[in-house]
Amino acid sequence: MTTGYVYDPVFLAHTKRGHPESAERLSAIMSELEDSDLKEMLVHVPSRAAEPEELALIHDITYIAQVKSLSQAGGGYLDMDTYVTPYTYEAAAKAAGSTVDLTLTVLDGKLDNGFALVRPPGHHALRFQGMGFCVFNNIVLAARVAQQQRDIERVAIVDFDVHHGNGTQPMTEEDPTILFISTHQYPFYPGTGGLHEIGKGAGEGYTVNLPLRVGVDDAGFVDLYREIVIPSLQRFKPDLMLVSAGYDAHWDDPLAGLALSLAGYAAISKMLVMAAETLCQGRIIFVLEGGYNLPVLRVGVANTFRALLNRNDFADPVGPSPYTPADLTEYIAEAKHIHDLNPK
What we know:
The protein is 38% helix and 13% strand.
């Protein structure tokens, strides 16, 4: 497999000491890739800043101008959690544009797949507002540009961050050409993503929310993927798959309460890569979102790269969850009924 990645040093310039979403996250990932044999196997795709007109495909032009103005003025906050520094606009525009370019490079057949190692993250970013550490919605912009500039009709976005992609959902929930699937802790920040939120209007049925209570572990996630996520993808038949990759559903993440291990993350990454090979010629791009335990994050991303490279030498130095797993039998049955996934 030929796997690409995007990375730019400006992603490290957007940072705030003591904040969980800091440059240390991406530095840890890059160190892991360099310390292992992975980086030499990857193809670096040059970074590029998205132009305001490009960002306006998904964001209001006044919000884009607000971020730029605040950044040029020295920084501040978009909400109580989302900081802006003098480098934020440049970093966020490059995160969005670079995710787009990696996606187009894969669609043009120059790469098999890829991982956008970008920050600030994006899946909480709304059309008019940044929130939850996110500034521009990198993954939705990549989906829209792919549809506009390449022969791509159907895009599937899978989000395994522990927080619901409340920015991604309203940007896609009325559109039957984008399938949005999210597994996330619930009730939890940002408070959206209920089981019965399944899309609106023409997009009804094309949003699959799987809100999870504390304690869902590897076995529960694999069952969810086998019984709901993968069948939903198979029914949709995407031309392209994009993944909001957050590693904060790990059992030892400081900001959440789900119970995936690194082995579990590797398993679901492998399932998604295999689904892409079957459904859309292997065209899958992971896009970095959350994950705040640095030893977990670095190995988790490295394992996803191994899945993209069709390797199975996954690492899990942290080990399995010590917590009692949640029983999802009745929950999965209810979710399958809601999304009409039971055998006819």
